[in-house]
Each structure stands twice: as C-alpha cells, then as structure tokens.
Amino acid sequence: SYPGEVTIPANSGTLTLRTQIRHEDPQALEKLNQQVVWVERKIGDVSLSVHNSHMSMVANVGTFSKRVLKPDQSTAAFVSAPNLEALGKLKGLQCGDVLEGNISYEAAKSGARGGASKRPGGYPISYVVGPKALEVKKDESKTEAEDERTEGEKLEEAVLKLKVSTLEKLIPKHSTNITQAKEDEEKFTKLYQAVSDGNEKHLPLLMVHLQKQDAETLREERLEQVIQASNAILDEIDETKLALYYGGTYHDKEDPESVKERKEMDELKGQLAEALGRKARALV
Question: In a structure prediction context, what are the per-residue pLDDT tens digits for the chain, which is 284 residues long?
Fold first, then answer.
C-alpha cells in the first residue's frame, strides 16, 4: 500500500484505485473529490535517437557521431521523440502521461581506474506523451466533377461499356489452336460490327479491336491489320494536346475538374503508348 510499491499481476483487467483520507472538516474533504491521482509504473526501456543537429533530428536522418571532448569543451546533442509505433504498443499509455528515465552521454570503459568513467545512473530525461495524430479521411465526393449528362446518356454509355467488356472476353489470353481461333474470330467479328455501328471512333472499342488483331494465334497472318488498327487509334488521339498538357498544365488534386481532366489524359496517354508499341512490334 501507499507509499510503498504495489505489484499488480499481468492481465488483471480493469483496476479500481481507492484512497482513504481523514479530516475533521467535511468541506476540506469535499474539495478533494476532483483531485488528480499521480500513478507511477515501470514500462521497460524506450529507445531514443540522438542526432548531431536539430535539422537531422526533425528529418530523422543520421545519428550522433562519437567525439572526444577536452576539458571545458562542450557540444550539443539533439534527442528525438520516441517512436510512435513503439509507444502505441505500451498498454494504458495516454495523452499527458510523462515518461521518465535516464540517459548516458559517455561511453563506459571496462577496467577504467576510479570507476566506470561515466556518471552513475546517467542524467534524468523525460517525455510528455502527446495526442494521437488525427486520421484525415479524404472526401472522394469533393474530388469528383459533377456529371451533367442526362440519365439516357449515362445509360447509353453503361451499355456501350458492357458491350466492349463482352468483346474483351472473346480475346484469347494465350495461344489456341487454329480451329478454335477462327471460331472466336467469327464470333468477335459479328459482335464487333454490331457494336461499332455508330461508335466507329470510340477509343476503348478501337483498343479492343487492336488487341484482337494482335492476338498471338493468328498474328503473323494479320500484321497489316495490326498496323491499320493502330493507325485508327493514333488518328483519334491529339498528340500535341497531350504534350502540351503534361508539359505545362498544373494538376490540382483538390479541384474536381482538374482531377477529371487528369484521369482522361492518363487514359489517352496509355492508349497512345499501347497503339505505338503494337504498331512498332508489327513493323519489326
């Protein structure tokens, strides 16, 4: 009991601290109802990093280099705060708690005359635990531009995406036999002609057509078609506009219109790179 140390078994759960104070004046006791209780407990060693300068301490770069000081010389050492992840593993640690310990600045020398050549017990050092950093959740709705299209236009685009996705599934991911390849070719051609009617310049559709022409099984027989399909895509992409955008346009991640434009430009850049790559491969 107080003032001696109290040993609490591990995993004891929630503990209730009871303090009994006697006084002849009830009003004096009443004032102690909101009294703060100071509890000290051992938590083990907490490692600290020591740096040569304030800048290296803030950036957490490098550590304090060993040096020898002559009499009447001094040097500055900057001690960084404990690692937040390590502190988070300590049970019961809360904002406002004070960690107290000792630190030594001298290297111990074994066999030195007159003692250990360092201050016994080291120097006192303390750290006040601060609040946890708040997790800022990004509101995705604020970075999405408002879609001003009608419901009919949205539905039309959704149907077209579904058709393009169906065409993609007809492209073999690996080499197949000639018979199977020609059967898939016939299915793809019929569906592609139906989908492309009125959507001849739709880039995702043109990309699927290029990927189909460049499929491995019948590729050697269709190198000219691969080049033509690549050129059809290149004709629809304004390379000058892309170059000007990436060369000088500022991308504001907080502006919905800027985010939308960046997404569209990144998609165009990827399509341009793929079309050029497949065309160059066919020409080699």
Answer: 566 777 777 677 777 777 788 888 888 888 888 777 777 878 777 888 889 899 988 888 888 888 888 888 888 889 988 887 777 777 778 888 888 888 888 776 655 555 556 777 888 999 888 887 666 666 555 556 677 788 888 898 899 889 888 888 887 766 567 777 777 778 888 888 888 888 888 999 999 999 888 887 777 888 999 999 999 999 999 999 999 888 887 778 878 888 888 899 999 999 999 999 999 999 98
Tokens describing residue 39: 């509890």
Between CA 139 and CA 141 the distance in angstroms is 5
Give, for 1, the enclosing helix (H) or strand (E). Answer: none
Using DSSP, state whether 248 is helix, strand or coil.
helix
The verdict on pTM exceeding 0.70 is no
Give the Cα separation of 100 and 57 in Å (integer).
20
For 71, the 3-state DSSP assignment is coil
Burial class (CB in 10 A: 0-12, 13-18, 19+), 213: buried
Q: Contact at 8 Å (CB) between 159 and 198?
A: no
Query: Which two three-digit tokens encode residue 215?
Result: 């499929």
Nearest of 38, 29, 27 to residue 2 by alpha carbon: 38
The one-character DSSP state at 163 is H
Residue 30: exposure state from Cβ atoms within 10 A (0-12, 13-18, ≥19): exposed
Q: Torsions phi, psi of 282, nearest 5?
A: -75, -30
Residue recorded with tokens 């219109």: 257
Enter the tokens of residue 1: 């009991």
Burial of 212 by CB count in 10 Å (0-12 exposed, 13-18 middle, 19+ buried)? Answer: buried
Cβ density class 46-83: b for 16+ within 10 Å, e for less: eeebebbeeebbeeeeeebeeeeeeeeeeeeeeeeebe
